[in-house]
Amino acid sequence: MLETYKNLTDIGYSWEDNTTEEHCTSPKRHERHEGSQTGEKPSAYTQCLKTFAHNSHLQRYKTTHSGGKHYECNQCFKVFATHSKLQMHRRTHTGEKPYECNQCGKAFSQQNTLKIHKRTHTGEKPYECNQCGKAFSQQTTLQIHKRTHTGEKPYKCNQCGKAFAQHSHLQMHKNRHTGVKPYECNHCGKGFTDQSALHVHKNTHTGEKPYECNQCGKAFARNSHLQIHKRTHTGDKPYECNQCGKAFSQHSHLQTHKRTHTGEKPYECIQCGKAFPHQSTLKMHKRTHTGEKPYGCNQCGKTFARHSHLKMHKRRHTGEKPYECSQCGKAFSHQNTLQMHKRIHTGEKPYECNQCGKAFIYHSGLRVHKRSHTGEKPYECNQCGKTFARNSHLQMHKRIHTGEKPYECHQCGKAFSQLSHLQTHKRTHTGEKPYECIQCGKAFAQHISLQMHEGTHKEQKPYE
């Protein structure tokens, strides 16, 4: 009861009942009051010799040495050394955020957190590294940064022994052992081991790319990806292989490259036993078992197992052809298609038939050619039963039944069942004649027309 009276007196409550006041004014209180007037600090705690004007302050401070925690949360039973810390903790249950930023309106449960947040508006970075001069808005961030200089990694995994500079990185790492993915996307339900990965993943739904390159304007969903991209402008390749000297712009690329020397394939498929040097390659391989195609085209709905395949597919809609031949200027939507095209100029035919010796520019050409020896025609029309050696030929044949003509000329509106027919037709508008006779120089719009013309030089008369 006396403690209650004292607390009320401390906050300025005026007592009219002299008897109550006498109860409140105990000898200990009088002694404490005298100490505050004279500046004397009578109470001393011998463990660290720190002194206090009030005995209650001494008792509270003692808890820092004894580990005493007297204030208990009545919801989760967590205990705290001070009443103020208990009050802040209770906001985790109530969701109360009484401290609001007057610039952006964002609210916080603690005043100190608001103070730190305000630095995002002011740009203030009061904590500077005395080794490299880099500045930070928070002292804890500076402490973590200093470990990049010292190499200190105080947080160690008790399962595999791997050490980390940050406790949060250790917690995320532990999720790999347990398989726990506590952060779930509310759009698709996909789980993640850390919150930052979830945040980045959500950008795939929103399309948000907040990090933009100030040189070319290209935007990225992750800041780390922007930093890596900037090296394409600077040419910086800080990661070098100590075996062959080859340098890389990304540390992960160096680690992957090293496996070409060691032959290591640490990622194995639990279904078929096939091993891979990269985790991403294993992940894509697994889709051959599950049939999963998570990347869908928002224009035609076609789905793909790989994001790179979706990206290439989208160029069919946009008509984008970023890869250009330096010899003839012809452009392609895929880099590998350009590489294969270049063989037309070099004459390279790396794929040879082991039965007749015929060589091909493309591996697919050799595979299809082999069917001329075996007579294999694996693609059958389900309407008329006709079979074909190539799937593309079957698809074109089916249009005879359906009457489909998906390739339309944007100049005259004429439609065709095959893309090659549309390409040939377009030359009637452009006047382009890419097929030239090497003997007389006469040019033709179609390859078959050139072949027939060449027969006039050889005096061939195949039609009897």
Automatic annotation (TrEMBL):
It comes from the Eukaryota. Gene3D superfamilies: Classic Zinc Finger. SMART domains: ZnF_C2H2 (SM00355). One of its GO terms (molecular function) is zinc ion binding. Residues 19-41 are annotated as: Disordered. Its main location: nucleus. It is found in: Nucleus. InterPro entries: Znf_C2H2_sf, Znf_C2H2_type. Keywords: Metal-binding, Nucleus, Repeat, Transcription, Transcription regulation, Zinc, Zinc-finger. Residues 71-98, 99-126, 127-154, 155-182, 183-210, 211-238, 239-266, 267-294, 295-322, 323-350, 351-378, 379-406, 407-434, 435-462 form the C2H2-type domain. One of its GO terms (cellular component) is nucleus. Pfam families: zf-C2H2, zf-H2C2_2. PANTHER family: KRAB AND ZINC FINGER DOMAIN-CONTAINING, ZFP617 PROTEIN-RELATED. Belongs to the krueppel C2H2-type zinc-finger protein family. This is Zinc finger protein 431-like. It comes from Cricetulus griseus (Chinese hamster).
